[in-house]
Amino acid sequence: MKRILIVLLLVPYLRASEYIYPVAKVANRPVLYLIYQKSPHHIELWEWDYNTNYAFQMLLSRFTPAGLSLLPDEGGFSFVDNGIIKIKQFLKRSPRSLELDAPIGHVELLHWVTNKICFTSGQYQDYFGIFQIDYEGMVYPLVMSPHTDCLYPQKVNDRLFFIARDDRRIYQIVETLYDPQGINKDKFPERLKEYEEQCAKSQVILDYQFQPIVFLHMVSCREGYVLAHPRALSKKDKRIRFSCHQLTKKEKDWCSKELFSFSIPTQLLFTGNYARLYEALLPLIPLYDVNYIYYVDCKNGINLNTYKFDRASKKSKRLTNSQGEEQFFGLALLSNKLIYGGRLCDNLPGQLSGELKMGLNKGFIEVLMGVNSF
Q1: pLDDT band at 346 (very low <50, low <70, confident <90, very high)
Q2: Four-point Cα dihedral 16, 21, 26, 29, nearest 10
C-alpha cells in the first residue's frame, strides 16, 4: 500500500515536459512556424502570424513533423514523420509521402536545391551515404564510401562538404564535387554502378582524428562551423559540453579554431527521460548570423539561457535569465529581434491566440513583443 501511495505522489512530478519553439520563418509573410511538443514521443506543427497574433495547427495530430525544411519558393515544406519523408504543398490539403526507389533509411533532414530536388544523408546497407532525391522519389548517389559514414552534407555552389566518420571513429571534414550520378538511369542499381565507375575525387580539408564532430554548417566555400563534443556520453552526466569551431580557408590550407563552448542538459537529449526533446539536438544548435552567433547554454546549472557571441570582440553576452523550470532554446531571427522558445511552465500563463491555449514561457512572450531587441 505504501509503494502504491509513493507512486501516485510521484506521478505529477514525472509528467512529460511540454515545449514550444520556432523552426522556420517565411520571408514574404509575417509568419513563424512553431513546433509544439506535447510529449517526448509526439510533436505538432503550428503557424503563427505575429502581426495578427493568430495561430493554428497546420497538420493533423497523427503526423509527427520532425526536421522541417521550407521549399525554396516557400510554397510548401518537407518533414520526416517516423522515418517517412513527407512534402506538404500549401495548395494541397494533405502532405504526400515521398516513396524512394532505393533502400535508404534514417533520413532526418532534407536540404532543398530547387522545388523538385533535394539532398540528404541516409543509411544504405551498413553505412550512411549522401544522396540527391527528386520530387518523384528517385535517388542518385552523391557520396558513398566503404566502411565510412558520410554525414551532415552542405552544398555551396558546385561543391559538397560533409563529415566523414570511419570504422575507427576518426572524424574528418571532406570536400568534393556535387555531381549526382545516373541521371539518365531508370533504376537505382544502375545509378549506383555508374557512381562506382565515375565517382568524383574527395579531399580531406580538416582532420579531427578521434574528436567527434556534428552539425557542419558552411557559409561559403572558404568558411564554416562545426560542433565538437566528448567521445563518451553518459546519461549519468548532468550536462554535455559542446564547442563551436570556426573553419576558414587561408590560401590553400584550412584551419579550425574554437570560438566558444556551451553545455546542454543531458535530460533533453537521451531517450527514456520525461524531459527529452523529440528533435534531440536540432533545436539546440547555434544560429549563425553575419556579426553574431546566437546559442544556448546552461553553464553549471540545468537551465538553458540564450547568449550571443560577438565575432569581432570574441566575447559572449547572456541575453536571458531563466528561473525555476524555465528552459530557453530554439532560436530564430526576426528583423532586429531574437526569437526563442522553451519549456511551457504552468506558473506562467499566456497564449498565442484563441486556438493555441497553453501556458507559454514568459521569456518567449517578451521577445515576441520586442523586449529583447538589438
Answers
A1: low
A2: 90
What confidence tens digit (pLDDT) does each residue in 296-308 have? 999 878 899 999 9
Could you tell me the residue range of the domain that residue 163 belongs to? 99-210
Residue 117 · residue 132 · CB < 8 Å: yes
Stretch 187-206: mean pLDDT, rounded? 91
Instruction: Give burial (CB, 10 Å; 0-12/13-18/19+) of 352.
Output: buried
Query: Is 142 part of a structural domain of the chain?
Result: yes
Among residues 120, 125, 93, the alpha carbon closest in space to that of 109 is found at 120
115 in any annotated domain: yes
- 3-state class (DSSP) for residue 227: strand
Neighbours of 52 (CB within 10 A): 9
**CA pair distance 370, 84, nearest whole angstrom:** 38
90 domain-assigned:
no
Q: Say what the pLDDT of residue 369 is.
A: 32
Q: Within a domain: residue 8?
A: no
Amino acid identity of residue 82, one-letter, is N
pLDDT greater at residue 114 or residue 367: 114
Q: Give per-residue pLDDT as tens, 122-157.
A: 999 999 999 999 999 999 999 999 899 999 999 999
**CB of 104 closer than 8 Å to CB of 122:** yes
Average of per-residue pLDDT across 305-319: 95
Q: What's the pLDDT band for 357 if we cut at 50, 70, 90?
A: very low
- Nearest Cα residue to 140 out of 195, 177, 86: 195
Total domains present in the chain: 1
In angstroms, the CA 254 to CA 173 distance is: 10
Closest CA to 245 of 221, 223, 222: 223
pLDDT digits (tens, 9 = 90+) for 232-241: 888 788 999 9
Query: Which ranges in the chain belong to alpha helices (H)?
Result: 2-10, 188-198, 362-368
Ramachandran class of 53: left when φ > 0, alpha when ψ lies in -120 to 50, beta otherwise: left
